Amino acid sequence: MRRMGWEKEPGAGLLYASRGKARVLVCGRGEEASDPDPAGSPQEPGPSFPSVDSVQSKSLVKFQEPEKFNIRDGDQKVLVLDCEILKAIPHKAYILPETFFVLASYYHSAPPEKGSPILLAVSKGELCLCCVKAQGKIFPSLQLKKKKLEDLVTEKEQAQRPFVFYKADVGSRSTLESAAHTGWFLCTSCSSGEPVRLTKTVGRKKQVEFHFIKL
């Protein structure tokens, strides 16, 4: 079978479809032609390519590996996971501190003076630290959400925001401020065995500076 071809009449602005000796007028002046033969269409769109920014951001997320840390507060209490609750207890030889998985967050709204935006997870990277304000509550609280860190890091900024902490160095220690709730910091109590919480009050009764011990 002969393929249909295209012929344009010079100077007339007329376009014909031809097959053998037959010619059919497809369009005249000011009209657009549509090719009934997709395989031979000169208007078939080419492949689309992602933008440079999207390629760079995806490659950064794709190839990074989380760093692993143990975390201690200023009183040298270690953070452990007890029934999916983070607690701070005195460090002993028989105590196994929880391993924290940490990834940088490409959180574009992060103010430079706040520190480095990071994401933290425990339980082999499958429970992510999150700051939320429950319905009917006045203050935000720290929660552990069942979400894989590798999935969280690819989410959009708005969805990722409650999980972002600003890590600011204070000498050899660091503070962790919630990105979603400005002025609220991760803290431990001076009492042993208490859950890790959020606080807006920095004082003797609460520790807001932590040692990150790389594994």
Rg of Cα set: 30 Å
- What is the chain-wise order of helices and strands? EEEHEEEEEEEHHEEEEEEE
Strand-residue proportion: 35-45%
CATH class of the largest domain: Mainly Beta
Indicate the structural class: mainly beta
What's the tally of helices? 3
Helix content: under 10%
**What strand order characterises the main sheet?**
4-7-8-11-12-17
Distance between the termini: 70 Å
Low-confidence stretches: 29-61
In the CATH hierarchy, the architecture of the largest domain is Trefoil
User: Mean pLDDT, nearest integer?
Assistant: 79
Tally of DSSP β-strands? 17
Shape: globular
Per the CATH scheme, the topology name of the largest domain is Trefoil (Acidic Fibroblast Growth Factor, subunit A)
For the largest beta-sheet, the strand count, sense and barrel status come to: 6 strands, antiparallel, barrel
Pfam families: IL1
GO molecular function: cytokine activity; interleukin-1 receptor binding
Region (Disordered): 27-53
GO cellular component, one term: nucleoplasm
Write the layout of secondary structure elements.
Layout: E1 5-9, E2 14-19, E3 22-27, H1 52-63, E4 67-73, E5 77-82, E6 85-90, E7 100-104, E8 116-122, E9 127-132, E10 141-146, H2 149-152, H3 157-160, E11 164-170, E12 173-178, E13 185-189, E14 194-195, E15 197-199, E16 206-207, E17 209-214
Antiparallel strand pairs: 1-2, 2-3, 4-7, 4-17, 5-6, 6-14, 7-8, 8-9, 8-11, 9-10, 11-12, 12-17, 13-15, 13-16
